[in-house]
Amino acid sequence: MTNSKRHWFKRPALLSRTRPPTVKPAHASLSSKATRNLIRSHHRLLKARTQASQTGDAALVAKIDAQIQRNGGLESYQIASRLGQSSTRGGDSSKLLVDWLASRLQPLDGKSYKYRLLEVGALSTKNACSMNQSLEVTRIDLNSQEAGILKQDFMERPLPGSEGEQFHIISLSLVLNYVPDAVVRGEMLKRCSSFLTKSPPPGLSQRACPCLFLVLPAACVYNSRYLTESRLQDILSSMGFVLARSKKSHKLIYQLWDYTGDSNPRPFAKELLNPGKVRNNFAIIVQ
C-alpha cells in the first residue's frame, strides 16, 4: 500500500473528553477579596435602603432593591458568609463557643442535660454547636437555606410564654452588624434578655448561667467613630450582662456575656467617641 492510499484513523477519544464540563457553583471561585467586597457592598446597600425608607423616598428604595438583586440578593450574601466561615477562611465561630462552654456543660450528677441555644442567623446545621450532644439548638435565619433552619426574623419572633421556651444561650455571630439601623441594633440586644432564662439548666454548675455569644467584625468596635469596646461594655452591662470571655483576631471580636437577669437598659445616643477620617460609622443606639 502506497503512502498516497494509506488511510489514517484517529484514535478514539476518551469518554471523559466527551463529557460536559463539571458544573461548579458560582461561588466556588470567589476569592477572599471578592467575598469581602460582596459582603461590604451588601451592607452599604442595606444601609442606604434604610435611609431612603426613613425619608420616604420610594423611588430610591426601589432602585436600591434592584441593585441588591443584581448583586445576587441575600442568597449571595449568605454564600459569601458561608465561605467566610469555612475552614479555609477563618473557620466556624461556634467552635470557640463550644470550647468556652465546655467546662460549664459538665453535669454535677453524671447525667446528660441539654443546654438550649438559639442561633440567630444560622447558616448551617453541621457547625460545631449543632454537632455538640449537650446542646439543643434552635436555628433561625431571614433566608433559610436548610430544612433544619427556621425562616424567621429574630425581631419578629414571639416572646417566650414560659421559662421552658427561653434559652440558656443566644448566639449573635455576625448578626448585629448585618442590621442596617443603629436603633434596631440596640433593640436587638435588649430583646435578647427576654429570650434568656434567669437560671442554669438543672443538674449543671451554677457557672452555667445564661449567656450571650456575640461576634462582630473587629472594625465595628475598634475603628468606629461611634462605638468603642468601653461603650459596648457599658451598653451590655446596663442590660444585665457581664463579660465572661473575650478574644480578638485580625478580623473579628468574639465575646461571651453572662446574663445576670438584672436588666435595666439606659439610653445611649449616637455620639462621637473616636474621631478620625478613616473610621467607619457603625453605632448602637439604645432608646
Automatic annotation (TrEMBL):
Q: Gene Ontology terms, cellular component aspect? A: nucleolus
* Compositionally skewed regions (Basic residues) per UniProt: 1-10
Cross-referenced SUPFAM superfamilies: S-adenosyl-L-methionine-dependent methyltransferases
Q: What is its EC number?
A: 2.1.1.-
Superkingdom, natural source = Eukaryota
Q: Which family does it belong to?
A: Belongs to the BMT2 family.
- Protein name, UniProt field: 25S rRNA adenine-N(1) methyltransferase
The species this protein was found in: Aspergillus saccharolyticus JOP 1030-1
Q: What is the lineage of its organism?
A: Eukaryota, Fungi, Dikarya, Ascomycota, Pezizomycotina
